[in-house]
Amino acid sequence: MTRSHIIAVDAPAAVGPYSHAMTAGEVVFLSGQTPIVPATGALVEGDVTAQARQVFANLGAVLAAAGLGFADAVKVNVFLTDMDDFAAMNAVYETVFPQPFPARTTVAVAGLPLGARIEIELTALRR
Ligand SMILES: C=C(N)C(=O)O
Questions:
Q1: Which InterPro entries does its entry note (predicted)?
Q2: Cystine design at 34: which of 28, 73, 116, 123 (Cβ 3.0–4.6 Å)?
Q3: With contact defined as beta carbons under 8 Å apart, do 39 and 67 qualify?
């Protein structure tokens, strides 16, 4: 099975020792994206809705660098620092993924890098 890494020039630089994505055969594992604005390296201004939109913009940039799109996602993991943001996250989420929606898990966590309210990682499949 081939293994390679993906660096997306349109996504924020990694904030730690990880690749934007790794491929393993036909499966593409995207690292978690936080709401960092690529041009500034800072968190986007605004509420969790703005943060969710930025996260999806960043994930979209990584998917595009892999030659993929949100329709290719098979599993998504959503991390929130406050489960009260669940509905707002869903409202953005359902505009991004076509149906049938990928499998998904959402959990609340004690903290995220740079004080973000949301981080999302996903796994996609080359078809
Ligand atoms: C933002 C990340 N994906 C990380 O720190 O692992």
A1: RidA, RutC-like_sf, YjgF/YER057c/UK114
A2: 116
A3: no
Which of 5, 6, 20, 31 to mutate to test ligand 1, by most ligand atoms within 8 A of the CB atom? 31
Non-local CB neighbours of 126 within 8 Å, separated by 6+ positions: 23, 26, 27, 28, 67, 68, 72
Contact between 81 and 53 (Cβ < 8 Å): no
Within 8 A by CB and 6+ apart from 93, the residues are: 52, 56, 78
**Contacts (Cβ under 8 Å, ≥6 apart) of 100:** none
Q: What is the pLDDT of residues 67-120, one digit of tens each?
A: 999 999 999 999 999 999 999 999 999 999 999 999 999 999 999 999 999 999
pTM of the model: 0.97
Which CATH number does 3-125 carry? 3.30.1330.40
DSSP one-letter code for 83 = G
ipTM: 0.93
Question: How far is it, in rounded angstroms, from Cα 34 to Cα 32?
Answer: 7
Q: Which residue is closest in CA terms to ligand 1's atom 5?
A: 16
